[in-house]
Amino acid sequence: MERSNAAQIIIALIPIVGIVMGSVVVFFYLLWNHRYKIFLIKTEQWKKSDFDLLTFSLLGGLLLGAVGLCLTVFLAIVGGRNYGLLGGIIPLSSGIALLAFFSIKRFESR
Prior knowledge:
It is built from 3 helices and no strands. By secondary structure, the chain is mainly alpha-helical. It has 2 domains: 1-46; 53-108. It is flat.
């Protein structure tokens, strides 16, 4: 059964509209968050937030490493050795790099 031309156009427009609407939401979030921080600075209520880079790199490395390992194994079993395997190897290598950064930074701070 063939789709009509109108249906094909609508199906092609759905992702575009979704990306545009998501971009608008992100833009206004960033704008309002910026204005809120400026207001807090003007009223002298702003406090610098502490960001723990080591904990973030450990969590990100563990999550990316686990997801990348699962994807690599699954894609190797299903598809064999082809370019689709990069979908698992890229997050796996990113996770390993974050874990290596965590290890180096932790031992460096001792």
